[in-house]
Specification:
alpha/beta; Aconitase, domain 4; 7-stranded mixed beta sheet; 8 helices; globular
Amino acid sequence: MQKFTSLTGVAAPLPMINIDTDKIIPKQFLKTIERTGLGRGLFDEMRFNADGSEKPEFVLNQPAYRTAQILVAGENFGCGSSREHAPWALLDFGIRCIIASSFADIFYNNCFKNGVLPLVVPEEIVAQLMEDAGKGANAVLTVDLENQTISRPDGEKVPFQIDPFRKHCLLNGLDDIGLTLQKGQSIDNYEDSLKLSQPWLAPAA
């Protein structure tokens, strides 16, 4: 998993509440278990018309936000089904951080397991960052995970809280498999001792 330490990028405003996972990545894109290529389907019904042409009014289709890496959204982001394709699609598009006043629990957890940082800040802070994000190409924020701050375009630093374990995992690029592999030597030692104490459990040569 890619590490998340500090991110400076354009922030796109998406002032909608209850954006569910079907809006993030509609069901027709769930036929794959590959994590790449899903960015094309991100917000498909909001980004594209039925004929595949872009909807110019949608924020990520606007020139200033086509390479946005941060999304400032309304409350309860990621509600609906538990599909892990949602953070995959965001990450494949290039979005590494979502800022909102609240997230659906399963989506929130899935983000951390895939290198996406979901930040919960008070509604009044979201409103300020949403205003910043509305400035187009000047809507550059810096999210510093190590120091737990969001730097606004005017230089003000906004603190945020995050679970220490989740912070550790993102800073070090550790998903569930990575965490397990950190215990590799202990696992090997246990298996070696098991072969000696209970050799009948060892696979045949």
